Amino acid sequence: DTGVSQDPRHKITKRGQNVTFRCDPISEHNRLYWYRQTLGQGPEFLTYFQNEAQLEKSRLLSDRFSAERPKGSFSTLEIQRTEQGDSAMYLCASSLDGAYNEQFFGPGTRLTVL
Amino acid sequence: GQQVMQIPQYQHVQEGEDFTTYCNSSTTLSNIQWYKQRPGGHPVFLIQLVKSGEVKKQKRLTFQFGEAKKNSSLHITATQTTDVGTYFCAGTGGYQKVTFGTGTKLQVIP
After folding, report:
1. Residues of chain B contacting A99 with CB distance shorter than 8 Å
2. Residue of B nearest to A42 (CA)
3. According to a count of CB atoms within 10 Å of the terminal CB, is the N or C end of chain A lower?
């Protein structure tokens, strides 16, 4: 257990539905990252927060994806109008600020879109 | 955009043999990290390299960052079955965006 928690751990939804995932980082970490990982691939960067500010968002991310970190603590990732291609493991990671930024990953949320 | 490639994609070794994975970035990196992911698990941080030409050791693992800060390697001496997993490098470029490599899956045959 790294101290980063994600909820839910598994989500099965029908195509076209909206889903929301939550990530609770390690409390003193001000950086929070979202990644997507499919089988046999490395984690793909989605977005990154420094406190409550979303500083970077992947150009691969369509407008159906949105992320928030309203108080600089927990974060949510919403996918609207899900598609079968969205099926993946969604990973959250947090780290301290500064040059040394070891990322601690949560267990992930596995999304299956039927 | 920033791309990070790793070779080989897969490696099967006999227990006791050495193993090396190589990581190459399309752009200069501010730092590089290495992670290990066991089957069904999440990535676990191993080390971070920051300086050009830096070499760090952790027991049987040796990590190196290239002089141009565009490539890196991980070498494991005398592999053990506990080394099984996928090894990812992750390069940090501009705006703290982290790009993970394609990974090298290591299988150790007892």
Report:
1. 31, 50
2. B102
3. N
pLDDT digits (tens, 9 = 90+) for B8-67: 999 999 999 999 999 999 999 999 999 999 998 999 999 999 999 999 999 999 999 999
Q: Which residues of chain A have pLDDT under 50?
A: none
Long-range contacts of A66-75 (CB under 8 A, 24+ apart): A67/A34, A69/A32, A72/A30, A73/A24, A73/A25, A73/A27, A74/A22, A74/A23, A74/A24, A74/A25, A75/A22, A75/A23, A75/A25, A75/A32, A75/A34, A75/A49
- Hunting for tokens 């990322």 — which residue is that? A103
Report the chain B residue with the minimal C-alpha distance to residue A109. B42
Residue B95's pLDDT is 65
> Over the stretch B92-110, which tens digit does the pLDDT of each residue have?
876 677 899 999 999 999 9
Check if A48 contacts B (Cβ < 8 Å).
yes
- Amino acid in position A8: P
Rounded alpha-carbon distances, angstroms, from residue A2 to A6, A59, B34:
11, 29, 17
CA of A43 to nearest chain B CA: how many angstroms apart?
A: 6
Nearest CA in chain A to B51: A99
B74-96 CB burial, b ≥16 within 10 A, e <16: bebeebeeebebbbbbbbbbeeb
What lies within 8 Å, CB to CB, of B89 at 6+ separation is B4, B6, B21, B23, B32, B33, B34, B35, B72, B74, B100, B101
